[in-house]
Amino acid sequence: xSTFTFDQPLSVLAPAKLNIRLKITGRRPDGYHExxxxxxxxxxxxxxxxxFIEEPRxxxxxxxxxxxxxxxxxxxxxxKSFFSQIGWRKGLSIELTKRIPVAAGLGGGSSDxxxxxxxxxxxxxxxxxxxxxxxxxxxxxxxxDVPFFLKRSPCIARGIGEILEPIRKWPSFCxxxxxxxxxxxxxxxxxxxxxxxxxxxxxDNRELELTNDEYxxxxxxxxxxxxxxxxLLENDLERVTVSRFPIIREIKQSLMDVGAIGALMxxxxxxxxxxxxxxxxxxxxxxxxxxxxxxHVFVVEGIDSWGVVKW
Length: 311
Known about the structure:
Shape: globular
Number of domains: 2
Strand content: 25-35%
Structural class: alpha+beta
Oligomer: single chain
Number of strands: 14
């Protein structure tokens, strides 16, 4: 890698994630929900170009999927938070190319924020970078999913998402992501989850209760060899989103019809992914779905690690 100088632009990659499993285990007094989730990063990336400027301001432009080009963008907020932490008195120009659909349950905004934090820490604090603990604290202030992307690997997430345990040797699957053209509010999904009609929930004639033993259930499943990801596929938020958008259920069935070994909504939705054992099978599924749906369809693979900054 060449030596960095401040007149060079930085190219930053920010991957999407899939929730292979998402179980709600409780609700805290402050209103946040506790969970146990398996999150896997995948090779669908937002691209961010950074240029340092002399003026003490942050400029942002956006391309691709629509995102706010102002202080409402997590990228802006993460950069401002980092500058405040280290006392940086200059500015930054950010060009964000959104290739991850927005408000899709794929963590694009959180990944952008984490990638900015890592890029700035690597460049501005090269000789004395902020500690992993301090970085995690800064990340959590931006959002519950942001700390995950600092880990750069599949993880079990607990708490509100900030307690992270890397998963070693996650199976090599391909995934087909289908993103319908509907909008889902994560806040409203969690709000609805607390309503009597959703807690406890009857599903397939079984009554599901919040359980604090979910972590150990997840660990036992992960330790089974060979690991079968389809046995882990469960998302407590899916029932809420499906009740408002039945198309989620239809997409899951479509993925199974074209060869997925399992299908699930990611996060609070509305993206749905199917798990495939081969890239050929995933590409065939995409070719079929492209002709039968107006939704965005992506073929991705899980990633174990990724570089953040290039110049």
